[in-house]
């Protein structure tokens, strides 16, 4: 077990650099090469220490372009063919990108860290289809129920706690149409990807009215509410909960309820006709390595790696390791599947209608 608190930045850089030397030699990239990466700003691939380590070890310059929405990803890929080497995609969108000819299959024999990925993540049908591997599982995370550990001496086990009158006016809810419908679907025993009875979901959401203390949109908004002790319960991202407990020393933890939790997973894909395929594979291999994940955890804000060895090296006190990334909990996660445009609009309409009802 690594002593994470004593692991210096310099040691981490040396470890990353040593790992990358093998990748650079394998792919034989030239010093003047570039890799063009498309991702959300601040979502791991542009961590300054990571970019510095990769560029130093391989001689490949990393050039980022950013998105602000998934539709924008598709727009950029369609209008800039042959420009992007590495594209970070939510797994739910990978097949659509492949079907449109916007990405190309990966040669996983060139990824020395590929076999360290959780088998369920690595072999997900969302990234493996038509006999090819279209994405390397990278990061994942959950949206679950957090609770105040000073209020709950025993962790709750069910989503029903969100509707428990004992916590009237003490629930902080993420203001997001898709998550709201998915939570209501799980709580009413329906498939969160394709709920069969939207009237039941409407009733379930309306029943939250007396429970809600506040809606929040950003992690900062949620953290301020929790720090002010406004929330006994929240629907919130698991990594934000852990950061609030570890970095802000707040009395908080989370559960993966018996009905499940919402989860996402991102994959590293290669753009169609990528100008530097060898550099792309080198960058992807670094991104899925346990060395990269260790560095991201050290600076804070990391979700959960798809690399099982990386997660196993987290401290034993880590909520990610002990609550979220156990086989039992993973088995209860509902990884988001693709939604149609009609579904997204219907979720938005229902959520706006629900909030109007709350305001009456």
Structural notes for this entry:
The chain contains 15 helices and 14 strands. Helices cover 40% and strands 20% of the residues. Residues 1-32 have low confidence and may be disordered. With 360 residues, it is an alpha/beta fold. The longest helix is centred in the first third of the chain and has 19 residues, at 9-27.
List the helices and strands and how they pair.
Layout: H1 9-27, E1 34-40, H2 48-58, E2 61-67, H3 70-79, E3 86-90, H4 94-99, E4 103-104, H5 119-122, E5 128-129, E6 132-133, E7 136-148, E8 171-174, H6 177-187, H7 198-206, E9 212-216, H8 219-227, E10 233-237, H9 238-246, E11 252-255, E12 261-271, H10 277-287, H11 290-299, E13 304-305, H12 308-312, H13 319-324, H14 327-332, E14 333-335, H15 341-359
Helix pairs in contact: 1-2, 1-10, 1-11, 6-7, 6-15
Strand-residue proportion: 15-25%
Q: Return the structural class.
A: alpha/beta
Assign a percent range to the helix content. Answer: 40-55%
Q: What's the main sheet like? A: 12 strands, mixed
CA radius of gyration: 21 Å
User: Can you count the helices?
Assistant: 15
Number of DSSP strands? 14
Average pLDDT score: 90
Distance linking N and C termini = 55 Å
Oligomer: single chain
Contiguous low-pLDDT stretches (5 residues minimum) are 1-32
Briefly say what this structure is.
With 360 residues, the chain is an alpha/beta fold. It has 15 helices and 14 strands.
Give the key terms:
single chain; 360 residues; alpha/beta; twelve-stranded mixed β-sheet; two-stranded antiparallel sheet; 40% helix; disordered N terminus
